[in-house]
């Protein structure tokens, strides 16, 4: 007994869920969101295409709904995300360098100011790296070079002195070329005096690709730079159909991620990218894969739920 959030809190950590607006109206799901989690991340509602679909036209209704639910439930919110290469309107992508730099400043100033006081953290820059640890050749990088990253953090800090500012990426969970690239980038930002508080490790895992190499050691080396670390988008997909062997492997992955965070004092919490397999980004992105979350489509707990629960409970 005891919720995931309660057991995480005993370690001084949160346990969070990513939710979308269409999900939080599901009356079967809402009680689980309230009962199991101490933190929410909007899965889509705070992305640029939601918050500034047209130049200078800011729309916060979807993000505000999720903040309101979190406040009602006594949960913190991680804002996701200010600067990304996906879900950013065409009008932004078509700007020249000078106008793009101005749009970045204006977007961050407006959105961060709107949510000032409501959020625990922002994912300021999302997914800036290639698999080999070099900079992703996004429209941001092509037009502005790496300076867009430092600029984004400075603009966010100028708009809110208190919210935690994170950089966030996937496939950086274990030691390897991509996490080495993140480590160099973060060291460089710190050397430049850029205001950064934390590094987010998405942890979109798949049982067929193996568990990340030495995740605890990887989180620890970032923490040793004086930063918070967080597991921000955890899920563990598999090739369908699920069977008891795959579900047991999945449970082991979830347990290992949980234990990695518990072993690192500056790992502030874990967010799963959804709770129920009813709502998961996986099947539409990776056809034939899924069953990635803690409970099934009918909210029945899977072995993964028990593994996370027992790891948090010290079992
Ligand atoms: O809003 C439109 C709707 O108007 C339209 O009718 C419908 C038709 O497909 O699409 C809707 O947009 C979808 C959007 O989610 C909102 O539901 C997009 O097609 C769909 O591609 C989009 O997927 C999101 C994905 O990011 C896109 O980049 C997922 O929900 C979201 O979970 C996922 O989250 C990302 C994190 O932000 C960053 N890390 C990876 C993670 C998983 O991809």
Automatic annotation (TrEMBL):
Transmembrane segments: none annotated. It is an enzyme of class 3 (hydrolase). The active site is at residue 233. GO terms for biological process: xylan catabolic process. One of its GO terms (molecular function) is endo-1,4-beta-xylanase activity. Its EC number is 3.2.1.8. Residues 1-311 form the GH10 domain. It catalyses: Endohydrolysis of (1->4)-beta-D-xylosidic linkages in xylans. Keywords: Carbohydrate metabolism, Glycosidase, Hydrolase, Polysaccharide degradation, Signal, Xylan degradation. It comes from the Bacteria. Belongs to the glycosyl hydrolase 10 (cellulase F) family. This is Beta-xylanase. It comes from Actinophytocola algeriensis. The lineage of its organism: Bacteria, Bacillati, Actinomycetota, Actinomycetes, Pseudonocardiales. The chain holds residues 28 to 342 of 550 of the full protein.
